[in-house]
Amino acid sequence: MGSKGIRVGTLFLFLLIVPSSLGVLSQEADTSGSTQSAEPPPGEEPKEAPPEFVPPAPGGVPEEYLAGANYLGNFLKAWRLNALSDPVLSKVFLAVESGATREALTELDVPDLDLALDDLITSRMVRKIGNLYRPAFPVIHQDSGKAFDEAVRKAADGIYPELRPLLKKAAKASKKEKVSPWLFTLLWSETFESESAEEMLVDAGALDARRMRDEGYLWIQIPAHPRLLGVERYSSGTETLQYVWTALSYLTPAVENFHIRRQILDGALSHIPWRETETEETVTEFGILDGKKRVKVPALRKDSRLLTLLRQTSQLYTKRALAALRTDALAKELQVPRDEAFAAAFTTLGFSMMQRLELEGLARAPDYLFREFSPSSGLVEALAVTADPEFRPLKRSYYLYDGLDFAGSIRQAEECLKTHPGDPDALFRKGIGFMKLRKYPEALAAFEEGIALPASADDVWKGWFLIRAGNTLDVLERRDEALVRYERALQYADVGGSHETARVWLESVYRD
Q: What is the dihedral angle through the alpha carbons of 413, 415, 416, 420, rounded to the nearest 10 degrees?
């Protein structure tokens, strides 16, 4: 998110209309009143599932736009996607899809065009290049979609035969290690959508390191690929819990909650019976506990032959994908920067590889993954734990924070800063840790250091650094200085509800 030690924390998330809220953003900023404190969205959401996508009002974007929204990266809420649900904003968005000048847009029946454009730009849905407004991400369909699909198909035709022998060895190893039901999950999370693969892509310059870690890549692909997959990760810094899911098997309460995730991860490693009665019924319902109330998610250690094979295959796959897809042709066809075109093509190539695996019978998808309205009893087959190839201090910082060890979280954030000075994620984690310990001068210093980092107006961190600095200044009874920070936050991108939060604290004094 090429740089070893940089937290990638990948989430590939498929957005769609779902029947019930995914309401898992439990750490989201609280805007309910003047005396309530708030947890920061950035730094928390990257580990969470996407929010429910509300259907657009009449006149909004067509439903296929929502069904085709895809994401590779670390922070889905870097884009205010509900802008597409607004009839006015969606009208402007569709009008700029192929590029449009402001003069051309005046022909739209929009009450305040400048306000709508500002809103879309602040929401990171539209960007201005020269005198043209365009979507802030690729929209792949019609003629460009044909070229895109052909490039991906050609790459898959060339790469899959070379990988097949290794994939067959992996299938054999999975049987020997008695984890074959989980092979589908492991192949996606450790081979085709692995963190090490993304780090290789960053090292090769195919993906931008800062962008990958801070926000990621969003695109809309119409029609959507029939085998859209997502991987949700939760790491302790030494081991990672993976959960593969699809649009039809969206995240359940068993893996939405930080506390439960932590217990599943720890339980898979310790084999100690589940002792928390408040959550036992939930995890039992989804098949995560065995008859002895122990977590039955498989845990592959570093010496696992299967894990070694999966990661070797991932390296070969990534090299071949780089050679096949890292061209200027797709970027030119899609009229976007090369890294944006590559991110979409690389992930779609992974979908194609998984589809071929299934057709050959080398890996079986858990039944519920692609069956609409199917029960989630197969959830356990989508969960697996693997050892991380190296220790990751920033992930450890998150893990300790979730366990309320704020001092330990700060120490690990500082370890990360030793090798990645000025890392905004680590600075934010450090500042929030100090806030939890009520060490407000130290928290303010961390936030102000983040504010001082060079950043453009669409930076995903700047607004939240300013808001949290304002919060600490409020607690320190420096209200005038706090107000300046909240006002400045409104000048940066509206990320994870940052503008709404800033407006709340402009009207109300933040209290601990």
A: 130
